[in-house]
Every structure is written in C-alpha cells, then in structure tokens.
Automatic annotation (TrEMBL):
It comes from Nakamurella flavida. Coiled coil: none annotated. Keywords: Isomerase, Rotamase. It holds the Pfam family FKBP_C. GO terms for molecular function: peptidyl-prolyl cis-trans isomerase activity. Residues 38-124 form the PPIase FKBP-type domain. Residues 1-23 are annotated as: Disordered. This is Peptidyl-prolyl cis-trans isomerase. Its EC number is 5.2.1.8. Belongs to the FKBP-type PPIase family. It is an enzyme of class 5 (isomerase). It catalyses: [protein]-peptidylproline (omega=180) = [protein]-peptidylproline (omega=0).
Amino acid sequence: MTQSSSSKPTVEHPDGPAPSELQITDLTVGDGAEAVPGATVEVHYVGVEFDSGDEFDSSWNRGESIEFPLRGLIQGWQDGIPGMKVGGRRQLTIPPHLAYGQAGGGHRLSGKTLIFIIDLLAVR
C-alpha cells in the first residue's frame, strides 16, 4: 500500500485480534533527517480505534500539522517514531499499556488499542 504523504491517509481496518506489543509498519520510507529519541517532531497524523475503526483525532481535519517534543507523548509514539525519516509515513498500532493505559484509567481512550498513521514533516 503506497499513499501520498501530501494527503490524509486512510486506515485499513485490521483483521484478527489486537496486538499486545507495539507494531511499526513503514508505509513510505523517508529520505530526510532521522527522528531520534527526545527530538521535537512536526507531523501530520490520523488516529483510529483498532476495534471499531472510528477516527478519534486527525491533524488533517484541523488543516495544519502539529509540532511537539517526543518525550511529552504517549509511550507508543516515543518508541515508534525514532528511526523514522522526514518524508516518511509510518503506521503505529499501539496497545493500551503504551497508549492511555488500561480501561478505567480516566482517559476516553483508556483500554483501547490505537492505530496512528504519521507523516514526519520535520525534526528539530
């Protein structure tokens, strides 16, 4: 599956049970600067719930990318973005313990396995 990183990606609904560990799939390999742990990254992303396929967040819908330090994000992003290069598009499937914790944790996404497709636009 190849998708242009200049348009909002669509997330294919997966078959089978949710994974218990982080799954990293490069959809497009970038050729720019490489993200390292603790870097500040600029990304476009879309997030969906694994079980329902419902979209819960998307920078594309807001019409602008977002920039933030990796260390302030959920563990699945901290573990899943390093090694990615600018210009790349990566899919992360993140189990609850690397996202918002187990069910009942107080966040609306607690207990859910999440799928993100992330376009890396810049590393600082």
